[in-house]
Amino acid sequence: MKRALVTGGSGGIGAAICKQLAGQGLFVYVHANRNIDKANQVVNDIVAQGGEAQAVVFDVTDTALCEQILNELCQQGAIDVVVNNAGITQDAPMAGMDYAAWDAVIDTSLNGFFNVTRPLLMPMMRKRKGRIINISSVSGIMGNRGQANYAAAKAGLHGATKSLAQELASRNITVNAVAPGIIDAGMAEGHFDPSLIKSIIPMQRAGRAEEVAALVGFLASEQAGYVTSQIISINGGMA
How far is residue 168 CA from its own chain's centroid? Predict the structure, then answer.
């Protein structure tokens, strides 16, 4: 059975991704940092639907801990699919943003990607097969007022995605990023006025976590074997 790791798997989009991958027959490691109860609930939901999953708990900003835990997981075999979904926001206009808010967002979204992905690369390379899928944001493409830290982290993730894709293409390992727009789940759930959504999104609605998960599921599949180095927007037509 193929195995997947989804960081931030206890959140809204992360949980939908975990369930999507489990439905495709993968054993899913549902990662959490603090929300272990939510991660366990995702596991229970997957098991109730006939899938297999396990909760794992660690801080993606802790380089040494990530390496220790991921090396232990890889002793059971390479992780075939990694979805880097963990992220936080600490919004403020840059003129009023403190260093702690800048560092925390960069550390989780960008350094967390490195801390989680790097220990998994050699096992994937030895197997000569794998999928790395990074969850980005429309903010990393368009920018967003009050999110200079978040946009910088996600834009950095785009560059890392494209560079790593070139390094791993000959090993049959694909690396892509998914950039959601306004999704009615997780950090964004209920935070956007319906009139604003209609004015900025051509489809005039927020996206659903399950729609993001379906795209991730395709990128994780055999059918997506020739798709790599892409930043794929899922945003209802936002320019």
Answer: 19
150 flagged as catalytic: yes
Give the whole-angstrom CA distance, residue 138 versus residue 92.
17
**Residue matched to tokens 């950090």:** 187
Q: Considering the domain boundaries, does residue 239 fall inside one?
A: no
Range of the domain at 27: 3-234
- Return mean pLDDT, the chain: 95
Asked whether the predicted pLDDT for residue 234 surpasses 90, the reply is yes
Per-residue pLDDT of 158-187, as tens digits, reads 999 999 999 999 999 999 999 999 999 855
Question: Would you say the pTM of this structure is higher than 0.85?
Answer: yes
* Count of domains forming the chain: 1
Integer angstrom CA distances of residue 132 from 1, 32, 100, 178: 18, 18, 29, 11
Please report, for the domain that includes residue 130, its CATH number: 3.40.50.720
Per the residue annotation, which of 29, 99, 150, 226 is the catalytic one?
Answer: 150
